[in-house]
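Kindly go through one protein, given below as sequence and tokens. The question is how this chain folds according to its tokens.

***
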Amino acid sequence: MARSKPKNTAMSEFHIWRAVITQAIADATNKSMDRRELRARDEARQWFQDDSADFRRVCVFADLEPDAVRACALDLIDKHDSNTVQRPSPPPKPARERISLSALTDRNGTTLSIQQWAERTGISQATLYHRIHSGWPLDEALTTIPVRGRRPKRPDNIAA
């Protein structure tokens, strides 16, 4: 027994071709910075700009005038581009202040190397080094006694 075609076949094909054009407009105005989507955006924009047989065929199947579709799509792309606000790039992070570990001076004016401070305080060089590079004030780094098995909390007066 032969199957008969549904009555709405022509109408459903008509909607499919219009959906192709709608998707191309969505691709052409996509804001994503994903590499694949950028490529799809460029291809969709090129498809509207070129006077290709493929573009004209899709418009005819969608029962639309190709020149009107192109003009409308390019207008939408222009409006999208003019409404897209470019985010300014963030300001560069300030260079981290370099701390000379060869000579560290405490608030009493005593200047010693990190090795000498380690010997004097009984705190390992590694601990002192990490504290100083983590932003601890020198006096806090030299006077906070390390607790084995856990890291001490940073002093309250240091911004995280």
User: Anything to note?
Assistant: Helices lie at 9-28, 35-49, 53-61, 66-83, 114-121, 125-133, 138-143. Residues 1-5 have pLDDT under 50 and may be disordered. The radius of gyration is 34 Å. Residues 113 and 120 are 10 Å apart (CA to CA).
